[in-house]
Write a structure and sequence with these properties.
With 167 residues, this protein is mainly beta. Helices cover 6% and strands 35% of the residues. It is built from one helix and six strands. Strands 1-3-4-6-5 form a five-stranded mixed barrel. β5 (70-83) and β6 form a beta hairpin. It is elongated, with a radius of gyration of 28 Å. Residues 108-131 have low confidence and may be disordered.
Length: 167
């Protein structure tokens, strides 16, 4: 059986970061995802899907993702059942994401809500600082082939007999 979902949409609000009583970090956010189709003469409909992320992914999402930002998530669908205050049985569907990606290019600096470089990291588990700038060393130039290379003369060619081949 397979329970896998990949979505791309915009955050409807900043992620809500919390911790459980045992100290596990989690964050919730809602993605506005446009449907791929629309009726003739109608606008596309949008689905609002609840997403949950756990532990270090939750910390990453709460730190770098903001309302209106386009993101992609990969995870699975989880169904929960509960009884509301009036005693009615209800169900809720959540996307439990295990991977979260930036899905848009670097924003114009006049529109940025913060100074984060959106192209610097493409995924939460690749968050490593850029390598330190090394001084550029001049590259050697090669004008002549090395001594072991053929000059192209037929005199450099030694024929090989079939008996000399190892296969």
């Amino acid at each position: 059986m397979l329970n896998r979902v990949i979505l791309m949409g915009r955050l409807t609000a900043d992620p809500d970061y919390r911790t459980t009583q045992s100290g596990a970090a989690f964050a919730r956010f809602t993605l506005a995802v446009d449907r791929d189709f629309s009726g003739q003469g109608q606008d596309r409909k949008t689905d609002f899907l609840d997403v949950i992320v756990w532990r270090s992914t939750a910390e990453f999402v709460s730190k770098y993702f903001h309302k209106g930002q386009q993101v992609a998530v990969q995870g699975s669908i989880q169904v929960s059942s509960y009884t509301d205050r009036e005693g009615n049985k209800r169900r809720s569907w959540d996307i439990v994401a295990d991977q979260v990606y930036f899905a848009e290019g670097k924003r114009d600096s006049s529109n940025q809500q913060n100074n984060y470089d959106y192209n610097r990291y493409d995924r939460y588990d690749r968050m490593t600082p850029p390598p330190a700038q090394q001084p550029q060393q001049p590259q050697p130039t090669y004008n002549e082939p090395a001594g072991s290379y053929s000059s192209g003369d037929e005199g450099d060619f030694t024929p090989v007999a079939d008996d000399d081949l190892p296969f």
